[in-house]
Specification:
The protein is an alpha+beta fold and 237 residues long. Helix content is 43%, strand content 15%.
Length: 237
């Protein structure tokens, strides 16, 4: 049985192909895809076995230094899945899709977002970087177009002229960000994933994603920090 469970079926291959072509897949879509792949290939399907199904694929991806990883949307806390190349942990994995100047703009945008207090950078601040690039100066109109492409390709998210890292970027770049921004990058104290948009305890400095804050403090009239037990002074949205 264990041997059978570890075999890569056509259902697994189909699931992996769709995930790779999507770039990132929301949890409910991944569950539907799991069911569809199993039913199409007439293999055993159980609605609560998605993680096992993915573990089997990951065991076959291991020698290729690849892995399907699960992450959460910092916006609403929903699960997402993305295929990560473990052999290329740096931004260089984007090099085949973007020019050197576009990558430089992305790095500088990432700096602004990660070093900000709220995990966002305004379009004004990003566009002001366009004529400070080392590789070549970029006109603001060009920079606007490049930012649009980063949003379309799901590396950045944009809301009312404010940019943050897309869930896909956080899943794929987690190790890169944790090692390159050691002084400021933190993991959420609740879900242990990288937290870009987070609330921070004023007493001990731990951070939590906003959806994790909502869940953790649900129903509590006097929220207290899960680590130091001091009163949680941030607004509980």
């Amino acid at each position: 049985n264990n041997l059978m469970a570890a075999q890569m079926t056509n259902a697994h291959r189909r699931f992996l192909q769709v995930l790779m072509s999507n770039g990132i897949t929301e949890g409910s879509e991944a569950r539907k895809l799991h069911q569809h792949c199993c039913e199409t290939d007439k293999v055993y399907y159980a609605h609560d076995k998605l993680d096992d199904f993915i573990s089997t694929i990951n065991s076959h991806l291991q020698p290729l230094f690849m892995q399907i990883r699960k992450g959460i949307s910092e916006d609403d806390g929903r699960a997402h899945y993305a295929v990560v190349n473990l052999a290329e942990t740096e931004i260089t994995k984007m090099a085949s899709d973007y020019t050197e100047i576009e990558l430089e703009l992305f790095r500088k945008t990432m700096d602004l977002i990660i070093l900000s207090e709220n995990g966002f950078a305004s379009s004004t601040d990003i566009l002001n970087l366009a004529d400070q690039l080392k590789s070549k100066k970029m006109k603001k109109k060009e920079a606007e177009q490049v930012l649009k492409v980063f949003v379309e390709d799901k590396w950045l998210s944009e809301k009312n002229g404010e940019y943050t890292l897309h869930t896909r970027c956080i899943i794929e770049m987690e190790q890169y960000i944790l090692s390159n921004y050691q002084d400021v990058a933190r993991k959420c104290n609740i879900c242990h994933s990288l937290a870009i948009q987070s609330q921070v305890c004023e007493s001990c400095g731990i951070g939590m994603h906003l959806p994790c804050v909502r869940k953790y403090f649900r129903g509590q009239t006097e929220p207290r920090c899960p680590k130091c037990n001091e009163s949680w002074s941030c607004d509980n949205p």
